[in-house]
Each structure stands twice: as C-alpha cells, then as structure tokens.
C-alpha cells in the first residue's frame, strides 16, 4: 500500500536507484569499447556513449561516497556537538534556577541579608548609573555626607583625585526626571549625645557629619538655582531634617528597598545591609518613613519642583542648624 511506505523503504529505493545509475554508466563504458572495436561505430557516437557512461558512473559514485561516508560523518559530528550544547544548556539552566531559588525561595518574606558591611556597598549606588527617571528615597542619620564620600571615592581618578560630588550626581538625576526625597537627623535633637555614644562616636563627630550634609544641601540648592530651566516635568527634590530616634537607615530605589540598622556601640556604616523581600514588609517600612517625612515638613532645607521653577532653599533654617552644631560642639 502506498500510504504505508516508511522512511526505511524510501531510503532503500533511493540506494537501489543510485547503484543502478552507476551500473548503467559502467555498461555504457563497455558498450563504447565494443562499439569502437567490434561494431565500428562512428567516433563521435563512441565518444558520446563513453562520456555519458563516465559522467553517470563518476557523478553517482561521488554522490554515494558523500551520502555514505561524508554525510554520515558530518551528521555524527553535528549530533555530538548539538548534544554537548544541550547538556551545557541544561547545566546552565539548572545552576541559574538553583541560584534564584537560593536567593529568593518561594514564599520568602521579611528581610534578606545582602552584605555584612554596608559602607560603600555597590547596591546602594545603582541609581548613580541609571539614566531613566526613578523614585528615590534616602533616610538616615546624616546620609548626604556618606553618599558624597562614597561617590567621590568611586569616581576618583588620575585627572580628578577628589571624584565627582554627590550634589552633581543628584543634579544629573533630576535633569533625567527623577523624584528624590532625603531625610537626615535634626542636629538640634535632645538625644544627639546619646545617639553618638551608642554608636561609638563622639557628639562632635556625628554633628560634624550632619554639618557636612547641610553644606551639600546648600551646594545642591545653588546648582538648582543656576540650572532651574534645564529640568523635565516631574523632576522633584525635597531634603528635610527630622527629630526622631533613627532606628535604621532607609534606601529606596523604585521598588528595591535596602535597610540598615543602628546597633549599640556599632557604627551604622559598618553594620549589615538587608533587602526587603515582600510587599507587606516594604509597606511597613515605607509607612514608617512617610509618617516621619510628613512630620518633618516644617523643617524642609531644600525643596524643588520643576513645574514651579526655582528651588526654595531655607537659608535661615540652615544657619540655625549650623549654629546649633557649633554651639553643641563648643560646649562639649
């Protein structure tokens, strides 16, 4: 039955046909010899039959050689290489799946440790290299002074030993349409000496870091004033100081949130950093800082909204804060 012919039958038929053509070519060669010697064919007829026989025999023999030897060898080599590729791909996929499950096990919630030492941790500065608009929220005891030092260290080179300032990076991110919130400790708080002692610092050191952050605020405000027409719609910046116990530092880059805790007799920048995994945990931390953010509204150091034009720099508040730091340092 025609409908039941399989691949094996077709291959057998093709093989028989190929060998038949070779045999026909050989027969034509023999006929050309007999035609010349015995039957005295005209020369052109004998040559034609001979050439046709040679053509059929040589071409078909080459085809058979290719099919039986070269093609089988090529197929075997290709099959072996393809199998090796599949094996390697399976290993790579298995390793990646294992890595993802190790990093984020199913139903994992809460916090996941990222590093034992959060100072200069690279994940803190992913936003520096981004160019698309982002929603950024940074909160801690002084924030800007550490950010400035780390960015300068990362960008320092032979031609710029001090590196690029944090104010310049923040200005660029605003030019790219980002929304940025920054919170750091109000130096007038009554517990500054206690906080410094718990972290193993002197009050002068901690207040000095805050004073550096205030200086960066003034620099950033001046940059915003001189470039106020260069920002796209949606660009926003607000820097505030808060008078609350800073239990932890908060670092939000869009949906990614990293927190660091302040431990007794342990510098915050040398403690571990943790990533918030699930949405519920992120919501708890976010609500905590949004509440502090709202309460600190009257202590806004720098406010900028591209839709309103020039920034608002509260010079009077900055001077009051700096004077408070100087008075506390001298008294101490």
Residue share in helices?
A: 55-70%
Query: Would you tell me the structural class of the helices and strands?
Result: alpha+beta
Mean pLDDT: 80
Strand content: 5-15%
Strand order of the largest sheet: 1-7-6-5-2-3-4-8-9
Which regions are unreliable across 5 or more consecutive residues at pLDDT < 50?
1-7
User: What kind of sheet is the major sheet?
Assistant: 9 strands, mixed
Q: What's the quaternary structure here?
A: single chain
- Shape from CA axes? elongated
Total helical elements: 9
Rg estimate, integer Å: 40 Å
Number of strands: 9
Q: What's the end-to-end separation, in Å? A: 107 Å
What series of H and E elements makes up the topology?
A: HHEHEHHEHHEEEEHEEH
Walk me through the structure.
With 332 residues, this protein is of the alpha+beta class. Helix content is 55%, strand content 14%. The chain contains nine helices and nine strands. Strands 1-7-6-5-2-3-4-8-9 form a nine-stranded mixed beta sheet, sandwiched between helices. Strand 5 and strand 6 form a beta hairpin. Helix 5 packs across helix 7 and helix 6 crosses helix 7. The chain is elongated and about 130 Å long. The N terminus is likely disordered.
């Amino acid at each position: 039955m025609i409908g039941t012919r399989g691949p094996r039958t077709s291959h057998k038929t093709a093989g028989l046909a190929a060998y038949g053509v070779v045999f026909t070519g050989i027969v034509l060669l023999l006929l050309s010899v007999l035609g010349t010697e015995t039957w005295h064919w005209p020369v052109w007829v004998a040559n034609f039959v001979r050439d046709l026989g040679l053509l059929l025999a040589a071409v078909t023999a080459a085809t058979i050689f290719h099919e039986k030897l070269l093609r089988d060898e090529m197929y075997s080599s290709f099959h072996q290489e393809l199998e090796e590729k599949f094996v390697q791909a399976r290993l790579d996929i298995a390793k990646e799946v294992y890595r993802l499950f190790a990093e984020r096990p199913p139903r994992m919630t809460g916090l996941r440790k990222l590093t034992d030492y959060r100072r200069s941790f690279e994940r803190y500065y992913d936003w520096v290299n981004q160019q698309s608009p982002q929603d950024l929220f940074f909160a801690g005891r002084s924030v800007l002074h550490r950010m400035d030092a780390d960015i300068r260290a990362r960008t320092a080179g032979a031609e710029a030993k001090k590196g690029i300032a944090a104010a310049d990076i923040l200005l660029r991110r605003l030019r790219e349409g980002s929304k940025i919130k920054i919170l750091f400790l109000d130096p007038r708080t009554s517990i500054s000496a206690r906080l410094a002692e718990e972290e193993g610092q002197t009050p002068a050191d901690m207040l000095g870091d805050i004073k550096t952050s205030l200086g960066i605020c003034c620099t950033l405000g001046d940059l915003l004033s001189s470039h106020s027409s260069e920002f796209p719609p949606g660009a926003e910046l607000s820097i505030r100081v808060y008078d609350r116990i800073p239990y932890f530092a908060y670092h939000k880059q869009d949906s990614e949130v990293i927190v660091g805790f302040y431990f007794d007799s342990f510098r915050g920048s040398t403690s571990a950093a943790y990533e918030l995994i699930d949405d519920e945990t992120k919501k708890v931390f976010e609500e905590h800082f949004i509440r502090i953010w709202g309460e600190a509204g009257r202590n806004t150091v720098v406010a900028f909204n591209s839709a309103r034009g020039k920034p608002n720099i509260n010079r009077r508040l900055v001077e009051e804060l700096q004077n408070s730091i100087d008075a506390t340092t001298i008294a101490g």
